[in-house]
Amino acid sequence: YEEVRNHLIAMLEELNLRLARITNDVRHSDVPLEKDFAEMATQNENNEVMDYLGNSARTEIEMIKQAITRIDNNKYGICQVCDEPISKERLEAVPYSNMCIKCAIKAER
User: What count of other Cβ atoms lies within 10 Å of the Cβ of residue 24?
Assistant: First the structure.
């Protein structure tokens, strides 16, 4: 799984860069907040979207870190719910999957 591990590390690096950009945007480190109320409301709406994107990135980062740990512990590709192998197709689509498709569908219900 060395190739998968390298791919996950590359994904992690990209997400960390994206999260840093999102964090800078939300903090308005390069552009101060507007003084006009309507513009401030628009900026606040944009901040909410950026915050959502940041939270999504943080979640994905954590899932990737866990997948790397599973690779390091020889547990990668095994469903954490039923202990059955996760299909190659699922791992190719979502390389940080920790559940087989059957258990993932059950978990979403």
Answer: 13
Contact 71, 1 (CB under 8 A): yes
d(CA 17, CA 70): 23
Taking the C-alpha atoms of residue 65 and residue 11, their distance in angstroms, rounded to an integer, is 10
**Span 43-96, pLDDT tens digits:** 777 778 888 888 999 999 999 999 999 999 999 999 999 999 999 999 999 999
Kindly report the pTM of this predicted structure: 0.78
HEC profile of the chain: CHHHHHHHHHHHHHHHHHHHHHHHHHHCCCCCCCCCHHHHHHHHHHHHHHHHHHHHHHHHHHHHHHHHHHHHCCCCCECCCCCCECCHHHHHHCCCCCCCHHHHHHHHC
